[in-house]
Specification:
With 93 residues, the chain is of the alpha+beta class. It has three helices and four strands. It has a four-stranded antiparallel β-sheet, with helices on one face.
Length: 93
């Protein structure tokens, strides 16, 4: 059963390219949709160029919102939060 959850997060610094690649890879293997909302711009994690563009416009300290629509959204938000907070975290699926 598909569910919908979201989570607000404060970032201390911009997302690194490794973090962006991990988020993008996670989305490719996820049965559902994951979105990132920043300053009224919502993008899907499926689009790596959009992720990189959005990351470049982020301030070092900013707030983002992760939106998950799919199976087991609570675990997905947990995995994505770990990925964002740990610079070298590799998501294994």
């Amino acid at each position: 059963m598909k569910e919908f959850l979201s989570k607000n997060m404060e970032l201390n610094e911009r997302l690194s390219i490794n973090q962006l690649l991990a988020l993008h890879t996670y989305q490719k293997n996820y049965k559902g949709h994951i979105y990132l909302l920043f300053h009224h711009d919502m993008i899907t994690l499926e689009s790596l160029p959009s992720l990189v563009s959005l990351s470049l416009t982020m301030n070092p300290k900013c707030e983002i919102q992760l939106i998950v629509e799919g199976e087991n959204p609570q675990q997905t938000l947990h995995d994505l939060t770990k990925c964002i907070h740990l610079k070298e975290y590799q998501i294994a699926r």
